[in-house]
Amino acid sequence: MASDVVEDIKQRSGEAEVERPSRTRIEKRRAVIDSALEVFLKEGYATASMDRVAEVAGVSKRTIYNHFTSKEDLFLGVIGSMVDDVLAPVDQTLSSNKPAAQTLLDFASRYADVMLANSRISLHRLILGELNRFPSLGEIIHASGYGRAKTGMARILERLVLREELAIDNLDRAADSFWQLTIAPIQRELLFRFEMRKEDLPVTERLAIGIDEFLKIYSPAAPVKKPAVRRGK
Known about the structure:
Radius of gyration: 24 Å
Number of strands: 0
Shape: elongated
Largest sheet: none
Strand content: under 5%
Order of helices and strands: HHHHHHHHHHHH
Structural class: mainly alpha
CATH class of the largest domain: Mainly Alpha
Oligomer: single chain
CATH topology of the largest domain: Tetracycline Repressor, domain 2
């Protein structure tokens, strides 16, 4: 009986009609993004077409344009989805009460799981290969991709500063340092060594070494002990 009342309220409020199409729209957008990634990786950005993406996704081209205004917009949607995957653990990391070293390693490990996955490395290669023909694409992707990821890093670093576990006067610069000491060296190696995969590398150990170097730079200085003052009798 109670379920009938709830359903009746939904019907009268219009919630029942709205809820299902909303879920369908989200599912279609996800299918379009996943299919676009597949097509872009196989055919390249320049050759890929909206028709082909629609075919792989099993939707009409009109459906794609309901979500994305152009192929460039769709490509940015693929990048944005990747960044969303990276930023998903940020809130979880922000709620962590673990020491700074473990907090940073947890975040870097989650970040690496996404950024260093084979499909992400292939996408990164694709982006690099298209920059000569589409230089503006690089600026847009840098802002929507790494820019958002760096903001997530900065939030975590800021929390550690507030906990007095780090001493940082410029969060953006510190986030750049964190990236360069942890993820970036591994990413470069995977980008330019085509035969290598993330699973071939001791990722966790290398991240831990980078974080150790980061903490040497940004850990609060140990308090200086003042010499005891002797009082004369």
